[in-house]
Design a protein that fits this description.
The protein is built from ten helices and twelve strands. It has helices at 32-42, 63-72, 86-94, 104-108, 111-120, 153-162, 184-193, 207-215, 226-229, 235-244; strands at 5-13, 16-21, 24-30, 47-51, 77-80, 99-102, 125-134, 137-142, 147-152, 167-172, 198-201, 221-224. An eight-stranded parallel barrel has the order 1-4-5-6-7-10-11-12, surrounded by six helices. Helix 1 (32-42) runs parallel beside helix 2. The two termini are 15 Å apart. The mean pLDDT is 90.
């Protein structure tokens, strides 16, 4: 049985880690380099770094910050935000990222997924899906969750796999920051039909929420932010709890 992964997420704005609820009301959560070091030491399996305003501000991801984080940690490191070309990805991988995550640029130009997978290999291409339930359907959003698209989430998840993505990072905007639990039903739907790993994001508040997303939700990884940033749940305790519930973890 494959081990499940625990992934802290660093949402970055103006060089600081921030966290909000339903993608708004952001509050400061600390220095990203210091947090990254703590999570690596605590046994996080991977780290995700999202420059959440890069696309909205029409600028590139903060390369120097990526380089500083990469020098500090010894676990796989995914970077997203403002990535729209082969050159962008090359620069981030050269700065120390192991994988990159695209969202808005993939929706705008789906062929970019194929292009990046061909150039760098599917194993380092993560496509993020920010989704909200609107008018009875799960709808893909872009620009840090600000813009709804015409894409249906489940169909889009299938398309990005077919185009060569190596992983799906699925964030429910409805549950994000609520600590009421992951979007289990949607996660299960996408996980059941996907042949690539699905990272579930948005809504973690208790250890049992991770049990649910790994069992009922069939996710390969659980991503969370505020519960780790504000020390509500410690990663070693979480992993121990999950193992006690029959879920394979790397300790």
């Amino acid at each position: 049985m494959l081990t499940k992964r625990i992934i802290p997420c660093l949402d970055i704005k103006d060089g600081r880690t921030v966290k909000g609820t339903n993608f708004i009301n952001l509050r400061d959560a600390g220095d990203p380099v210091a947090l990254a070091a703590i999570y690596a030491e605590q046994g996080a399996d991977e780290l995700v770094f999202l420059d959440i305003t890069a696309t909205v501000d029409e600028r590139k991801t903060l390369i120097d910050l990526v380089r500083n984080v990469a020098h500090t940690i010894n676990i796989p490191f995914t970077v997203g935000g403002g990535i729209s070309s082969v050159a962008d990805v090359s620069a981030l991988l050269n700065a120390g990222a192991d994988k990159i995550s695209i969202n808005s640029s993939a929706v705008r130009n789906p062929d970019l997924i194929n292009e990046l997978a061909l150039e760098f290999g599917s194993q380092c291409i993560v496509v993020a899906i920010d989704t909200r339930f609107l008018n009875g359907e799960h709808i893909v959003h872009t620009h840090g969750g600000r813009k709804p698209t015409e894409l249906r989430t489940i169909a889009w998840a299938k398309e990005i796999e077919e185009r060569g993505a190596g992983e799906i990072l699925l964030t429910s905007m409805d549950t994000d920051g609520t600590k009421a639990g992951f979007a289990i039903e949607l996660t299960a739907q996408i996980s059941a039909s996907a042949n690539i790993p699905v990272i579930a994001s948005g809504g973690a508040g208790t250890m049992d929420h991770f049990v649910d997303v790994f069992t009922t939700g069939q996710a390969d990884a659980g991503l969370a932010a505020s519960i780790f940033h504000f020390k509500e749940i410690e990663i070693p305790a979480l992993k121990g709890y999950l193992r006690g519930n029959g879920i394979e973890m790397r300790i």
